[in-house]
Amino acid sequence: MYSHSYLFGGNAPFIEELYEQYLADPNAVPAEWRNYFDKLAQAPGAAERDVPHLPIQESFVQLAKKPAAGQRVSPVAEWESMQKQVGVLKLIAAYRGLGSRQANLDPLLRMDQKTLGELDPASHGLTDADMAVQFNVGSLVGPQKLPLSEILSRLKQTYCGNIGLEYMHVSNSDEQKWLQQRFEGDLSTPRYDAATKKRILKQITAAETLERYLHTKYVGQKRFSLEGGESTIAALDHLIQNGTAHGVKELIIGMAHRGRLNVLVNTLGKLPRDLFAEFEGKPTMELASGDVKYHMGFSSDIPTQHGPMHVSLAFNPSHLEIVNPVVEGSVRARQERRGDTERTQVVPVLIHGDSAFSGLGVNQGTFNLSQTRGYGTGGTLHIVINNQVGFTTSDTRDMRSTLYCTDVAKMIEAPIFHVNGDDPEAVCYVMQAALDYRMAFKKDVVIDLVCYRKLGHNEGDDPFLTQPMMYKKIAKHAGVRAMYAERLVTEGVLAADEAEGLIRAYRDALDKGEHVEQTVLSNYRREHALDWSQYAGTHWAHPTDTTLQLADIQRLTEKTTSVPEGFKLHPTVDKVLKARRAMAEGEQNVDWGMAETLAYASLVSSGYSVRISGEDSGRGTFSHRHSVLHDQNRERWDQGVFVPLANIADNQGRFEVIDSILNEEAVLAYEYGYACSAPDQLVIWEAQFGDFANGAQVAIDQFISSGETKWGRLSGLSLILPHGYDGQGPEHSSARLERWLQLCAEHNIQIIMPSEAAQMFHVLRRQMLRPYRKPLIIFMSKRLLRYKDSMSPIDSLTTGGFRPVIGDTTVADPKKVRRVVLCAGQVYYDLFNARKERGLEQEIAIVRIEQLYPFPTEQLAAELARFAGVKDVMWVQEEPRNQGAWYQIRHRLEGLLGNKQSLSFAGRPSSASPAVGYMSKHVAQLKAFLEEAMTLAK
Question: Which cofactor does it need (predicted)?
Answer without folding.
Answer: thiamine diphosphate
